[in-house]
């Protein structure tokens, strides 16, 4: 089927072409104030968790504590620390609306205007040289996500090289999926070695977002940079597109239902007729 | 909403089913495990679950739990989608829960009905799910 692009604006078409060709879009935050509020929230939660509330002086830039979190949180305490951060941030009623606003126009162009959003935003923290928080190469669709979902990935620090994540572009990914069964008896590391030359490492400075196609193989490796990676991720999909194992209600929630859909959902045909 | 002294209320009644939900059968002991875990994580006192009868569209046990609500803090249903399919009937249930000053939790979704403002959120999810149910299934 030939897609009909004729009804899209030039901007929507360009974004869509880019997304389909590369599998991702990196762009400046559409609502920088919202992104800064999220980062400030995380800095505040981290300071609170680490008992730094009393020290009123904050001479460093806001992101410095996040970058250097490995100086005060040892690897063995990292997961408990991360879970506390996730609990704290998701307890803020404004978090998801702010997160959405960081890429609202791009999400509308790539996914649509009536969206479902994941109910809990995730957080990854990857300390330098730590191999305990790795996400081996995978595609989300292989483990229960609908192919209609996209991931909005937002770094709270500058992310590049091994401090970031990798993505396999659509062409090589199609080849990987054709040959995936050949890796059935082999390790994920062997799969990584096979695709490594084709990988794109995401360069996403703070102040930008990454929107990527989670049907493509992706993951991360040991962070060999000097500072820690902090990145948040959250899935979006069209409300009326098919769901897989991540269900409506328990995982996704409609966030931008439009009036015509609400009217349609409320509509009941006149009843009471009999043969 | 009727405000009642907290001392007269005790715990949250579980509500599980014996019919498939959205086409899936969930063993009753698994439903109870999920509810118990939700209650423990949320700091709620769990009271033994009422099990809905298997006959389609039968909500007799739900009615019993609703009648019991004045003496409870609320109820924990295994899932939102165990509630009646008919919107008017769901609205009536929300109303009865709120009018007794109790609340409804749904364990799988982790959703809470504690005030008027929560109804819209629950109904958005329910109504979209009902619309999706009428669409042709897609295999990935």
TrEMBL record, chain A:
It comes from the Bacteria. This is Sporadic carbohydrate cluster 2OG-Fe(II) oxygenase. It comes from Azospirillum brasilense.
From TrEMBL, chain B:
InterPro entries: SpoChClust_LIC12192. It comes from the Bacteria. NCBIfam families: SpoChoClust_1. This is Sporadic carbohydrate cluster protein (TIGR04323 family). It comes from Azospirillum brasilense.
